[in-house]
């Protein structure tokens, strides 16, 4: 690697200055290699590797440069995986810019969501009335955060079914452990459908929510047709954890949100 670069540089007439030690020259090459911009065009702008996905550092022990994979790669991989995990092209278009704000309550929701995405603390909760743009606003937050954190999208109905079907198999265990530990998880349409979730759903939701509740470095975004009071009524342990973590960054929409929504 260094050899190849040295050849290229010397062909271009670039030689080590006569007063440079071998180490100084190699460090100079490291800086030079680190200054070449990369071409990873996935929306993430990484000042550390200039979007190459790796950088070099001078390693004292080996007296030479070593290549280091940049930590932005975890975010890049997670963004690529977003498409595979159900976030289709329609959802890709759900950004803050495309969120319509004809009414004052839309504008306020956008403000709350943007504030959270700019500096996430705790969880983001969007509950209530279907068709009010909850998925849009949560997806916009997820896409914004995906520039800075590894993120994961979970469509509750589909993935909870997959996990329940393979609970004691390696596939189910691996899926569950991924959902538990990913830095940012968006659970879309929690407890969709049934008026009352089954015990299997409740067990699964509690395991996931409780794990993430116990690690305050994990951010969770939840959208659901239920209101917080409904969730607490369905299962107090689950509902109260969501309520506690989402305090200060949540929206709840009752029928006719123009008159009836709140962020508290
Ligand atoms: Zn990087």
Write the topology of this structure.
Layout: H1 2-11, H2 22-34, E1 54-59, E2 64-69, H3 72-84, H4 89-92, H5 104-118, E3 124-128, H6 134-145, E4 151-155, H7 156-165, H8 170-181, E5 184-188, H9 199-213, E6 219-224, H10 228-234, H11 236-245, E7 250-253, E8 261-262
Parallel strand pairs: 3-6, 3-7, 4-5, 5-6
Antiparallel strand pairs: 1-2, 7-8
The chain binds zinc ion.
Description:
The strands form two sheets. Strands 4-5-6-3-7-8 form a six-stranded mixed beta sheet, with helices on both faces. It has a two-stranded antiparallel ribbon with strand order 1-2. α7 crosses α8 and α10 runs antiparallel to α11. The longest helix is centred in the middle third of the chain and has 15 residues. It folds into two domains: 69 residues, no CATH class; 189 residues, P-loop containing nucleotide triphosphate hydrolases (Rossmann fold, 3-Layer(aba) Sandwich), CATH 3.40.50.300. The model has no long low-confidence stretch (mean pLDDT 89). The protein is 46% helix and 15% strand.
Question: Main traits of this protein?
Answer:
single chain; 264 residues; alpha/beta; Rossmann fold; six-stranded mixed sheet; two-stranded antiparallel ribbon; 8 strands; elongated; binds zinc ion
Q: What is the CATH architecture term of the largest domain?
A: 3-Layer(aba) Sandwich
Largest sheet: 6 strands, mixed
Q: What value does the Rg take, in angstroms?
A: 24 Å
Helix content: 40-55%
Low-confidence stretches: none
**Proportion of β residues?**
5-15%
Q: CATH H level of the largest domain: which superfamily?
A: P-loop containing nucleotide triphosphate hydrolases
* Count of helical stretches: 11
User: How do the helices and strands follow one another from N- to C-terminus?
Assistant: HHEEHHHEHEHHEHEHHEE
The CATH class label of the largest domain is: Alpha Beta
The small molecules bound here are: zinc ion
Number of strands: 8
Globally, the shape reads elongated
Q: Structural class per helix/strand content?
A: alpha/beta
N-to-C span = 57 Å
Kindly identify the CATH topology of the largest domain: Rossmann fold
Mean pLDDT over the full residue set: 89
Order of strands, widest sheet: 4-5-6-3-7-8
- The number of distinct structural domains comes to 2
């Amino acid at each position: 690697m260094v050899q190849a670069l040295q050849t290229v540089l010397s062909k271009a007439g670039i030689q080590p200055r006569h007063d440079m030690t071998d180490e100084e020259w190699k460090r100079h090459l490291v800086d030079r290699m680190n200054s070449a911009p990369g071409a990873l065009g996935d929306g993430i702008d990484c000042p550390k590797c200039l979007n190459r996905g790796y950088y070099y550092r001078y390693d004292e022990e080996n007296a030479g440069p070593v290549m280091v994979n940049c930590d932005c790669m975890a975010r890049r991989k997670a963004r690529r995986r977003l498409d595979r995990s159900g976030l289709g092209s329609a959802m890709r278009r759900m950004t803050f810019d495309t969120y319509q704000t004809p009414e004052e309550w839309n504008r306020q929701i956008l403000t709350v969501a943007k504030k959270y995405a700019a500096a996430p603390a705790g969880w983001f909760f969007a509950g209530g009335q279907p068709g009010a743009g909850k998925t849009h606003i949560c997806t916009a937050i997820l896409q914004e955060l995906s520039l800075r954190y590894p993120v994961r999208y979970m469509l509750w109905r589909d993935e909870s079914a997959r996990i329940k079907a393979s609970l004691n198999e390696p596939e189910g265990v691996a899926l569950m452990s991924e959902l538990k530990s990913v830095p940012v998880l968006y659970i879309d349409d929690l407890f969709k459908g049934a008026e009352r979730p089954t015990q299997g759903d409740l067990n699964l939701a509690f395991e996931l929510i409780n794990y993430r509740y116990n690690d305050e470095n994990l951010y969770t975004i939840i959208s659901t047709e239920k209101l917080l009071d409904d969730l607490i009524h369905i299962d107090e342990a689950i509902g109260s954890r969501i309520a506690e973590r989402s305090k200060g960054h949540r929206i709840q929409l009752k029928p006719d949100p123009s008159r009836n929504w709140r962020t508290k």
